[in-house]
Protein backbone atom coordinates (compact mmCIF):
# COMPACT_ATOMS: atom_id res chain seq x y z
CA UNK A 1 0.00 0.00 0.00
CA UNK A 2 1.32 3.47 -0.90
CA UNK A 3 1.87 5.54 2.20
CA UNK A 4 0.39 9.06 2.15
CA UNK A 5 2.45 12.22 1.86
CA UNK A 6 1.67 14.13 5.07
CA UNK A 7 2.57 17.69 6.07
CA UNK A 8 2.28 18.50 9.79
CA UNK A 9 2.24 22.16 10.85
CA UNK A 10 2.80 23.64 14.29
CA UNK A 11 5.60 24.12 16.77
CA UNK A 12 6.99 23.05 20.11
CA UNK A 13 5.68 20.06 22.03
CA UNK A 14 2.41 19.91 20.09
CA UNK A 15 4.13 19.42 16.74
CA UNK A 16 6.55 16.94 18.31
CA UNK A 17 3.53 14.91 19.47
CA UNK A 18 1.94 14.78 16.02
CA UNK A 19 5.26 13.92 14.37
CA UNK A 20 5.94 11.19 16.91
CA UNK A 21 2.62 9.60 15.93
CA UNK A 22 2.70 10.21 12.17
CA UNK A 23 6.17 8.72 11.77
CA UNK A 24 4.61 5.32 12.50
CA UNK A 25 2.31 5.71 9.49
CA UNK A 26 4.38 7.18 6.69
CA UNK A 27 7.92 7.90 5.58
CA UNK A 28 6.67 10.76 3.39
CA UNK A 29 6.44 13.23 6.26
CA UNK A 30 7.24 16.95 6.29
CA UNK A 31 7.12 19.22 9.34
CA UNK A 32 6.46 22.93 8.76
CA UNK A 33 7.48 24.84 11.86
CA UNK A 34 6.71 28.27 13.30
CA UNK A 35 9.60 30.75 13.51
CA UNK A 36 8.30 33.35 15.95
CA UNK A 37 9.91 32.12 19.19
CA UNK A 38 11.65 34.95 21.03
CA UNK A 39 12.41 33.37 24.39
CA UNK A 40 15.14 31.21 25.93
CA UNK A 41 18.07 29.93 23.87
CA UNK A 42 16.25 30.53 20.58
CA UNK A 43 15.50 34.13 21.45
CA UNK A 44 19.09 34.81 22.46
CA UNK A 45 20.49 33.37 19.23
CA UNK A 46 17.87 35.21 17.20
CA UNK A 47 18.75 38.56 18.79
CA UNK A 48 22.52 38.03 18.70
CA UNK A 49 22.90 36.56 15.21
CA UNK A 50 19.74 37.64 13.38
CA UNK A 51 18.81 34.03 12.53
CA UNK A 52 15.55 32.12 12.57
CA UNK A 53 14.81 30.87 16.10
CA UNK A 54 16.05 27.26 15.94
CA UNK A 55 14.35 25.72 19.00
CA UNK A 56 11.07 24.50 17.51
CA UNK A 57 12.92 23.29 14.41
CA UNK A 58 15.27 21.32 16.68
CA UNK A 59 12.35 19.71 18.54
CA UNK A 60 10.75 18.64 15.28
CA UNK A 61 14.00 17.06 14.09
CA UNK A 62 14.39 15.23 17.40
CA UNK A 63 10.84 13.86 17.09
CA UNK A 64 11.71 12.35 13.70
CA UNK A 65 15.04 10.74 14.63
CA UNK A 66 15.78 7.10 13.86
CA UNK A 67 14.79 4.63 16.59
CA UNK A 68 18.18 2.90 16.67
CA UNK A 69 21.16 3.68 18.89
CA UNK A 70 22.61 6.13 16.37
CA UNK A 71 19.45 8.21 16.05
CA UNK A 72 18.52 8.16 19.73
CA UNK A 73 22.05 9.15 20.78
CA UNK A 74 22.16 12.09 18.41
CA UNK A 75 18.63 13.05 19.50
CA UNK A 76 19.86 13.25 23.10
CA UNK A 77 22.87 15.32 21.99
CA UNK A 78 20.59 17.64 20.04
CA UNK A 79 18.31 18.16 23.05
CA UNK A 80 21.09 18.53 25.64
CA UNK A 81 21.19 21.89 27.42
CA UNK A 82 24.25 23.32 29.13
CA UNK A 83 24.05 24.34 32.78
CA UNK A 84 26.62 26.91 33.80
CA UNK A 85 27.16 30.33 35.31
CA UNK A 86 28.22 31.73 31.94
CA UNK A 87 26.95 32.63 28.51
CA UNK A 88 26.28 29.03 27.50
CA UNK A 89 23.73 28.51 30.26
CA UNK A 90 20.52 26.91 28.94
CA UNK A 91 21.67 26.90 25.33
CA UNK A 92 20.87 23.57 23.67
CA UNK A 93 23.51 21.79 21.62
CA UNK A 94 21.02 21.36 18.78
CA UNK A 95 20.32 25.08 18.54
CA UNK A 96 24.04 25.83 18.26
CA UNK A 97 24.56 23.03 15.72
CA UNK A 98 21.71 24.24 13.51
CA UNK A 99 22.89 27.86 13.57
CA UNK A 100 26.49 26.75 12.84
CA UNK A 101 25.30 24.88 9.75
CA UNK A 102 23.30 27.89 8.63
CA UNK A 103 26.40 30.06 8.86
CA UNK A 104 28.62 27.54 7.09
CA UNK A 105 26.19 26.72 4.28
CA UNK A 106 24.34 30.01 3.93
CA UNK A 107 21.24 27.87 3.39
CA UNK A 108 18.51 27.52 6.01
CA UNK A 109 16.74 24.53 4.47
CA UNK A 110 20.03 22.84 3.54
CA UNK A 111 21.27 23.16 7.11
CA UNK A 112 18.15 21.51 8.48
CA UNK A 113 18.47 18.72 5.92
CA UNK A 114 22.04 18.07 7.09
CA UNK A 115 20.87 17.72 10.71
CA UNK A 116 18.11 15.40 9.53
CA UNK A 117 20.69 13.21 7.79
CA UNK A 118 22.79 13.11 10.95
CA UNK A 119 19.77 11.91 12.97
CA UNK A 120 18.49 9.49 10.36
CA UNK A 121 15.27 11.53 10.50
CA UNK A 122 12.12 9.93 9.11
CA UNK A 123 10.96 13.02 7.32
CA UNK A 124 11.95 16.59 6.56
CA UNK A 125 11.76 19.73 8.71
CA UNK A 126 11.13 23.15 7.17
CA UNK A 127 10.49 26.66 8.56
CA UNK A 128 7.15 28.24 7.69
CA UNK A 129 8.85 31.52 6.73
CA UNK A 130 12.31 32.47 5.52
CA UNK A 131 12.55 35.35 8.03
CA UNK A 132 12.16 35.47 11.83
CA UNK A 133 8.72 36.71 12.89
CA UNK A 134 7.12 38.40 15.87
CA UNK A 135 3.63 37.65 17.15
CA UNK A 136 1.31 40.41 18.35
CA UNK A 137 -1.97 39.63 20.08
CA UNK A 138 -5.05 41.64 21.02
CA UNK A 139 -5.90 40.63 24.58
CA UNK A 140 -8.83 41.54 26.83
CA UNK A 141 -9.07 41.18 30.60
CA UNK A 142 -5.69 42.65 31.53
CA UNK A 143 -7.06 45.97 32.83
CA UNK A 144 -8.74 45.43 36.25
CA UNK A 145 -10.65 48.69 35.83
CA UNK A 146 -12.04 47.76 32.41
CA UNK A 147 -12.11 44.04 31.59
CA UNK A 148 -13.31 44.80 28.06
CA UNK A 149 -10.32 47.00 27.24
CA UNK A 150 -8.08 45.62 24.48
CA UNK A 151 -4.33 45.62 25.00
CA UNK A 152 -1.58 44.59 22.61
CA UNK A 153 0.80 41.90 23.85
CA UNK A 154 3.99 41.49 21.81
CA UNK A 155 6.23 38.48 21.47
CA UNK A 156 5.56 34.74 21.47
CA UNK A 157 6.94 34.30 24.97
CA UNK A 158 4.59 36.97 26.36
CA UNK A 159 1.49 35.94 24.43
CA UNK A 160 1.96 32.32 25.53
CA UNK A 161 1.63 33.23 29.22
CA UNK A 162 -0.78 36.16 29.10
CA UNK A 163 -3.34 36.27 31.90
CA UNK A 164 -5.94 37.80 29.57
CA UNK A 165 -8.05 36.30 26.79
CA UNK A 166 -6.53 36.45 23.32
CA UNK A 167 -9.02 37.65 20.73
CA UNK A 168 -6.76 37.82 17.68
CA UNK A 169 -3.15 37.48 16.60
CA UNK A 170 -1.06 38.88 13.77
CA UNK A 171 2.50 38.64 12.52
CA UNK A 172 5.19 41.29 12.22
CA UNK A 173 6.03 41.76 9.40
CA UNK A 174 2.40 41.30 8.38
CA UNK A 175 3.09 39.67 4.99
CA UNK A 176 6.26 37.63 5.50
CA UNK A 177 7.76 35.47 2.76
CA UNK A 178 6.92 31.80 3.04
CA UNK A 179 9.52 29.06 2.79
CA UNK A 180 9.13 27.94 -0.83
CA UNK A 181 9.78 24.29 0.02
CA UNK A 182 7.05 24.39 2.67
CA UNK A 183 4.53 25.79 0.20
CA UNK A 184 5.46 23.11 -2.33
CA UNK A 185 5.10 20.37 0.30
CA UNK A 186 1.59 21.53 1.21
CA UNK A 187 0.52 21.68 -2.42
CA UNK A 188 1.75 18.15 -3.16
CA UNK A 189 0.53 16.51 0.09
CA UNK A 190 -2.20 13.91 0.48
CA UNK A 191 -2.96 15.09 4.02
CA UNK A 192 -2.25 18.26 5.98
CA UNK A 193 -2.30 18.04 9.79
CA UNK A 194 -2.73 21.29 11.76
CA UNK A 195 -2.25 21.11 15.53
CA UNK A 196 -2.08 20.22 18.33
CA UNK A 197 -0.06 22.92 20.08
CA UNK A 198 -0.25 26.37 21.59
CA UNK A 199 -3.13 27.59 19.50
CA UNK A 200 -2.32 31.26 18.96
CA UNK A 201 1.48 31.04 18.97
CA UNK A 202 2.21 27.69 17.29
CA UNK A 203 -0.84 26.70 15.21
CA UNK A 204 -2.48 29.89 13.96
CA UNK A 205 0.66 31.64 12.64
CA UNK A 206 0.73 29.27 9.66
CA UNK A 207 -2.57 30.77 8.54
CA UNK A 208 -1.07 34.28 8.55
CA UNK A 209 1.82 33.79 6.11
CA UNK A 210 0.13 34.73 2.81
CA UNK A 211 1.67 32.20 0.37
CA UNK A 212 1.52 29.37 2.91
CA UNK A 213 -2.08 30.24 3.81
CA UNK A 214 -3.01 30.27 0.12
CA UNK A 215 -1.47 26.81 -0.28
CA UNK A 216 -3.38 25.53 2.77
CA UNK A 217 -6.66 26.91 1.42
CA UNK A 218 -6.25 25.67 -2.15
CA UNK A 219 -4.32 22.40 -1.84
CA UNK A 220 -6.00 19.23 -3.04
CA UNK A 221 -4.84 17.54 0.18
CA UNK A 222 -7.32 16.65 2.89
CA UNK A 223 -6.95 18.66 6.08
CA UNK A 224 -7.04 17.31 9.63
CA UNK A 225 -7.19 19.63 12.63
CA UNK A 226 -6.04 18.05 15.90
CA UNK A 227 -7.34 19.72 19.06
CA UNK A 228 -5.35 20.02 22.26
CA UNK A 229 -5.96 17.86 25.33
CA UNK A 230 -6.08 20.69 27.86
CA UNK A 231 -6.24 24.46 27.88
CA UNK A 232 -2.95 26.20 27.23
CA UNK A 233 -2.27 29.35 29.25
CA UNK A 234 -2.97 31.49 26.19
CA UNK A 235 -6.34 29.80 25.56
CA UNK A 236 -7.57 29.49 29.14
CA UNK A 237 -11.35 29.13 29.11
CA UNK A 238 -11.54 28.26 25.40
CA UNK A 239 -13.65 25.27 24.45
CA UNK A 240 -12.77 23.07 21.49
CA UNK A 241 -15.44 24.90 19.51
CA UNK A 242 -13.83 28.24 20.42
CA UNK A 243 -10.49 27.03 19.04
CA UNK A 244 -12.10 26.02 15.75
CA UNK A 245 -13.99 29.30 15.47
CA UNK A 246 -10.71 31.17 16.02
CA UNK A 247 -9.24 29.31 13.03
CA UNK A 248 -12.21 30.31 10.88
CA UNK A 249 -12.05 33.94 12.02
CA UNK A 250 -8.35 34.24 11.18
CA UNK A 251 -8.57 32.37 7.86
CA UNK A 252 -12.15 32.23 6.56
CA UNK A 253 -11.10 30.46 3.35
CA UNK A 254 -9.63 27.43 5.11
CA UNK A 255 -11.66 24.25 4.78
CA UNK A 256 -11.02 21.13 6.84
CA UNK A 257 -12.10 17.53 6.39
CA UNK A 258 -11.74 16.10 9.90
CA UNK A 259 -11.41 17.50 13.42
CA UNK A 260 -9.79 15.05 15.84
CA UNK A 261 -10.60 15.46 19.54
CA UNK A 262 -9.96 13.54 22.74
CA UNK A 263 -13.11 12.90 24.83
CA UNK A 264 -11.75 15.39 27.39
CA UNK A 265 -12.41 18.20 24.88
CA UNK A 266 -15.96 17.09 24.04
CA UNK A 267 -18.04 18.45 26.90
CA UNK A 268 -20.76 19.46 24.42
CA UNK A 269 -20.53 17.21 21.37
CA UNK A 270 -23.22 18.98 19.36
CA UNK A 271 -21.54 22.34 19.91
CA UNK A 272 -18.18 20.95 18.78
CA UNK A 273 -19.73 19.18 15.78
CA UNK A 274 -21.36 22.45 14.71
CA UNK A 275 -18.04 24.31 14.96
CA UNK A 276 -16.33 21.60 12.90
CA UNK A 277 -19.12 21.77 10.32
CA UNK A 278 -18.56 25.53 9.96
CA UNK A 279 -15.09 24.57 8.65
CA UNK A 280 -16.58 21.86 6.45
CA UNK A 281 -15.28 19.08 8.70
CA UNK A 282 -16.65 16.05 10.50
CA UNK A 283 -15.74 15.30 14.12
CA UNK A 284 -13.71 12.21 15.06
CA UNK A 285 -13.37 11.43 18.77
CA UNK A 286 -10.56 9.14 19.94
CA UNK A 287 -8.87 8.62 23.32
CA UNK A 288 -5.36 9.88 22.60
CA UNK A 289 -4.20 11.00 26.05
CA UNK A 290 -1.45 9.30 27.99
CA UNK A 291 -2.74 7.53 31.09
CA UNK A 292 -1.68 9.32 34.25
CA UNK A 293 -0.14 12.34 32.50
CA UNK A 294 -2.59 15.18 32.05
CA UNK A 295 -2.26 17.03 28.78
CA UNK A 296 0.25 14.63 27.18
CA UNK A 297 -0.56 12.72 24.00
CA UNK A 298 0.17 9.01 23.92
CA UNK A 299 2.15 8.54 20.68
CA UNK A 300 0.73 5.09 19.92
CA UNK A 301 -2.87 6.07 20.68
CA UNK A 302 -2.48 9.19 18.56
CA UNK A 303 -0.89 7.11 15.79
CA UNK A 304 -3.86 4.71 15.89
CA UNK A 305 -6.30 7.62 15.66
CA UNK A 306 -4.39 9.15 12.75
CA UNK A 307 -4.28 5.76 11.02
CA UNK A 308 -8.06 5.42 11.21
CA UNK A 309 -8.63 8.99 9.99
CA UNK A 310 -6.07 8.93 7.17
CA UNK A 311 -7.33 5.58 5.97
User: Residue-averaged pLDDT, rounded?
Assistant: 94
Structural class comes to alpha/beta
Q: Which CATH architecture of the largest domain?
A: 3-Layer(aba) Sandwich
In the predicted model, the low-confidence regions spanning at least 5 consecutive residues are none
Structural shape = globular
Summarize the structure.
Helix content is 41%, strand content 16%. It is of the alpha/beta class.
Describe the structure.
The chain is α/β, with parallel strands linked by helices. The protein has 3 domains: 1-32 and 175-311, Rossmann fold, CATH 3.40.50.10680; 36-127, no CATH class; 134-172, no CATH class. 41% of the residues lie in helices and 16% in strands. The strands form 2 sheets. Strands 3-2-1-7-8-9-10 form a 7-stranded parallel sheet, sandwiched between helices. Strands 5-4-6 form a 3-stranded antiparallel sheet. Helix 1 crosses helix 13 (299-310) and helix 5 (93-105) crosses helix 6 (108-119). The radius of gyration is 19 Å and the shape is globular. The mean pLDDT is 94.
